[in-house]
Amino acid sequence: MIIEKFSMKFYKEIIELWRKTGISVGSTDTKEELKRMVERNPHLFLIGKRDEKVIGVVMGGFDGRRGYVHHLAVDPNYQKKGYGKMIMDELMKRFRKMRVHKVHLFIEKYNKEVVKFYQNLGWDIRDDLIMMSYVPDKTLYKMSI
Ligand SMILES: CC(C)(COP(=O)(O)OP(=O)(O)OC[C@H]1O[C@@H](n2cnc3c(N)ncnc32)[C@H](O)[C@@H]1OP(=O)(O)O)[C@@H](O)C(=O)NCCC(=O)NCCS
Q1: pTM for this one?
Q2: CB 45 within 8 A of CB 68
Q3: How far, in Å, from the CA of 79 to the mean position of ligand 1?
Q4: Domains along the chain with CATH numbers
Q5: Given ligand 1 and candidates 14, 19, 85, which is best to mutate, with the most ligand atoms within 8 Å of its CB?
Q6: For 83-133, what is each residue's pLDDT tens digit?
């Protein structure tokens, strides 16, 4: 698998990949929103390709303090071959190079089995935190793609 920076020409392919892998595709995954994401994080939004086909994707983000990992996915036909680890290793290498102190990610409760995957890569579960969210604009949030 060859890892490269995401570019908007792969938009359709990654949306398909996320849908195929059960990732919730929502209002922040429109073309405009992903363009904003890649412009802010050009070196952290990565895809993995085999034979010119996108088989892996991860969106890394840095807010100036913490790093974040969103929407990691590997095509079901290519899972359990080390590609998920490979793309995460590359992303963590890039965070390390940027001297980011800590990186967070969120796992939906229905998807508990993926915890083991991340633990394998050295991630720890946080049980000292409560996650809260606020929606500043409910019309924006309801937008679908
Ligand atoms: C999570 C995901 C990206 C893993 O990708 P992958 O390419 O199959 O993972 P790898 O082959 O690199 O696995 C690396 C290690 O984790 C283990 N692993 C992979 N998926 C696992 C799972 N669901 N549960 C437990 N262990 C798992 C592998 O066995 C391997 O262990 P090893 O190094 O001891 O052999 C992939 O399963 C996926 O796309 N899932 C659906 C989308 C998703 O849930 N994304 C995460 C959102 S938070």
Answers
A1: 0.96
A2: no
A3: 7
A4: 2-105 (3.40.630.30)
A5: 85
A6: 999 999 999 999 999 999 999 999 999 999 999 999 999 999 999 999 999
